[in-house]
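Example record used in the benchmark description.
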Amino acid sequence: MKNKNLFLHVCNIEIGKRLCFGLILVLLCLPLTVEAAPMGRIAYAVSGFNQKLGRLDFNLHMTTFTEDGDFKTTPLNQSGMYPAWGPKGDTLYFIQRADTLSHIFSININNPRNKTQLTPISGTYRFLAVSPNGKKLAFNGWTKDQPQQDNQVWVLDIATGEMEAVTAIPHFGRTFFFWGISWSPNSKQLAFSLERPGGLDQLYLLDLETQEIEILTEFNIDLYPVWSPDGQTILFRRWSREFDTMFTINVETRTVTPLFDVDKQTGYWTDWSFDGQSIIYSRWGAFFLHDLVTGKTEQLFEVDGSIFVISWWKHEILPVAPKQKLATTWGDVKRTLR
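Model output (structure tokens):
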């Protein structure tokens, strides 16, 4: 009887071990739900009254998400639009307009009052983007010596100050406007939106080595492309009569995936997180974080004014858990392509 009880005790221990091991395997196989949280810092322009100029203007701000789960917002004491981070996160590039003309400037965020002019000639410049290798700037526009119809994509070499038009898109006697520009992570391509005859805005890919242009989307009004950190997809906004929709498109397969619908005319600007798992976007004066894995959106914070362009420095990793956020599930408003 004693040997039998010992045998049963040993069997129970062995069964218990196997059950524990199986439970561990099950837990490891279960999908992990991780709350999206912003990390690093963002730069953006906010419309408001400029005391120095004595008029309404766009003023640059920076918000840093801190390790204790809070955030700190700092005015950079510069008027400007289209802010774009350099790859090291200490240099911010932007376009500043004086009267009807503009220049591209850079500032070091540790001494933001001192700015450096980068463009050798003034003009009308828009939609600034920094190459991921930090060597060049891309933007669109025309110089003061050109007619408005010569609106093209330009690339500026930061080290030499030389700028050249990398497109020669025919204008057919009228001005065509660009609506966003973004570098590929390997710094070899540009994605941009361009208005074409018929009222359509299509997405294009530009190979900077060959200067060949490829159509990415057609027969829609697609705006504000932003390349993902892994280079596989591009985030953009598609216009429709009732509402707009945020989409992604796979660069290789051309598969278009809807994310969520957005209200029209509410100042939406977007950028990717460093890991490509979430996007930050604005709606008037509020910032939101959309988790691409869970499909949920969290309101982060608000500013006094309307937000214009967001640039998220993607290389800083800070363990952050934002406070006082309003969660919204977008699953009810997602749409499938037909």
